[in-house]
Specification:
mainly beta, cadherin binding, 780 residues, cell adhesion, four-stranded mixed β-sheet, Immunoglobulin-like
Length: 780
Amino acid sequence: VDFKVEADGTVFATRELRIPSEQVAFTVTAWDRQTAERWDAVVRLLVAQPSSTHPAHKPQKGTQSAALDTSQPPKDMLLPWPQHQSANGLRRQKRDWVIPPINVPENSRGPFPQQLVRIRSDKDNDIPIRYSITGVGADQPPMEVFSIDSMSGRMYVTRPMDREERASYHLRAHAVDMNGNKVENPIDLYIYVIDMNDNRPEFINQVYNGSVDEGSKPGTYVMTVTANDADDSTTANGMVRYRIVTQTPQSPSQNMFTINSETGDIVTVAAGLDREKVQQYTVIIQATDMEGNLNYGLSNTATAIITVTDVNDNPPEFTASTAVDYELNRAFMLTVMVSNQAPLASGIQMSFQSTAGVTISVMDINEAPYFPSNHKLIRLEEGVPTGTVLTTFSAVDPDRFMQQAVRYSKLSDPANWLHVNATNGQITAAAVLDRESVYIKDNVYEATFLAADNGIPPASGTGTLQIYLIDINDNAPELLPKEAQICEKPGLNAINITAADADVDPNIGPYVFELPFVPATVRKNWTITRLNGDYAQLSLRILYLEAGVYDVPIIVTDSGNPPLSNTSIIKVKVCPCDENGDCTTIGAVAAAGLGTSAIVAILVCIVILLTMVLLFVVWMKRREKERHTKQLLIDPEDDVRDNILKYDEEGGGEEDQDYDLSQLQQPEAMEHVLSKAPGVRRVDERPVGAEPQYPVRPAVPHPGDIGDFISEGLRAADNDPTAPPYDSLLVFDYEGSGSTAGSVSSLNSSSSGDQDYDYLNDWGPRFKKLADMYGGGEED
């Protein structure tokens, strides 16, 4: 190691060195142990020339020169004074320092005073030292732009700087003891104000007038427009570029002209200029700094009016083959000559022709008034006060010899913004003209007026007035979206914010996004970063923010002159997120404003409710199954199939029936049925044949066998041809008059005396009585 540096910044050689003819360079590093900030300085050593002398502010040969990048000055950058004496008391060659310039950005938002550097003498370890600064900006006008703490040596700037007002300051720093005695030689401090893009280009003229001959070839020069930018022209902040925004009218092409982006020269780019079709073009020119970058640069506009001059490119033509005009000639005097086609005979001394005068009088008729300039285009700024005179749109009445009056009225005024004087055609503003209105198309508002005379019959003409509205900065910007969500921990995601403005360039972006100082929690919890002229990102500043919904105010300012600001509130939902950065379901509920305990309670209630519903459904299913099983397992004695369900049903008399009951009255007559051929039978008689075997019901059925038992019985019944219904007779137990069967008593009397009715005892008490009555031979 050839060189070392001490804690106070002294650089010394560790051994005897032979410096080559070229320079020797090395880097000295300084750092702050508390903030971990670090600064590097390059030190260059040159070969000493004893006889050479140099100004005090330049590095001498054999001395050190330090270069620090201070475009963003550290809060505690130390500028030490050089030492003049070595430790052993011998004088060492004086070392002069070239203090690096201190760069201060203009338009700083503070807070002020803002520290720039710290000046320190190594003698303050031995004696108290007082520091001071002198020069323009300190003790000379403008006063107190810079200040210094006399004890610590910390130097401050006290207010925002403006480079366009003053680009640099030269100060001198002094160090004295408490008695005012100089302890160090003054050192020079150079402060440069760093330019910011805070000035938009300004055109020398707001309206430029130029002309070009009709029929000119492409590339023909028309005019030059110039815009100046007060910012530093050596940086992109002051480099202006031009472009054409609009051309009116867009005939025969929408791009009839082009402009050199650097010089502002306007030339023709297309053929077809024809004065007889388009006499004048209105071209809007835009100048943008930042070398024409529309996202970051500031812009301004001017108007170029290009008149197409006439050349003799049309032969004369009659406007009409015949017609006369009373206002030009009221009468015509004609001389009519008549002559003989054949010559007169020889010797006749008379003229061979004769003439006569003829007078033709022209009768005047009423002609319609007309507007000489139709369409008429005027330009003015939007927002002019009500009652402002805009223009006079008057018509001409060709009937000069008629004493007629022309009166004006509106035919079309979509927004009802205009008022016309009925007598002279003066147009005034009846309301505030707004360029952002829906009635504006391509910055132009169009209205139609009527001029009518009082002739007989009356005649009228129409004219169109076009008002080109120049934009003013009358709309503050807005932010989108109005609602967003973000994770409760930073770094996972951010909210993209877009600024929008109803105005047009140059009264829109680039925008300035910032958070308000009040309430203090806004800047504590959030930070906003500008991405480009129209976009920014909102993100968390702290490591964790509790889930919930927060109203975050953001101040957005446009680039208008003067600029307009607006505070937009964005509702931000902060929620817990998964590994993909998406809000979890529980997190979304928590972000709605509920605490963790409330969320757990809600979830528990939901689980309990679902459990109760499930238990109720299971209970209902079980109960239905038990009821169904109980019906199938009912005791055979109580089986409804063994009981009589209807009693005392008697049909109508025989005279009400149209079917034959003789077969029921005389059972012995059924013998012939048995002899019928198979497959042929009546529909009202039971078929004869082997009956199918029905399944036998188990004595103690098992619930699982009941379904099979029912299914087998149903299948057997469906295949049983003898099972009812086998006829259409639905009325039974008929007892009518004249029946040979008789009643129960007569049936009993006609039957053999040994008829057995004991089976009625099994039917219950009521039938037991009948069994006793008929079984015992007693009569009813």
